[in-house]
Amino acid sequence: MSSALYLEHYLDGLEHLPNELQRNFNLMRDLDYRAQTIMQTIDEKSNEVLNNIAHSDSTTETSRRETIKQIQELFNKAKEFGDDKVQLAIQTYELVDKHIRRLDSDLARFEGEIQDKSSSTCY
């Protein structure tokens, strides 16, 4: 196979990589934004509970427990977003790694063909 064919073949395989990477990074950014928004809500609710406790507000124990339960649920949701983000990062890494391994393999085959051609023309 000629060098032009190797290059064309490899570039065909890379055609969708930029779009896939952009999609994954956009999804990670969206997950990060959602997690940050949840963390802001958690901060607000936590401050509310602490202020009520500090000022011995007339807020009932049941109300505090409900707010704490909401905070816990928000933490769980933020953790899910973080876990999804990690999975996307792993998928993105594996996608790029697959292309790198393919390039290494194609280069090795191409170099082997060049050596075969050069050794057959020397004799």
UniProtKB/TrEMBL annotation:
Keywords: Chromatin regulator. It comes from the Eukaryota. One of its GO terms (biological process) is regulation of DNA-templated transcription. The keyword Oxidoreductase does not apply. Residues 6-110 form the Inhibitor of growth protein N-terminal histone-binding domain. GO terms for cellular component: nucleus. This is Inhibitor of growth protein N-terminal histone-binding domain-containing protein. It comes from Phlebotomus papatasi (Sandfly).
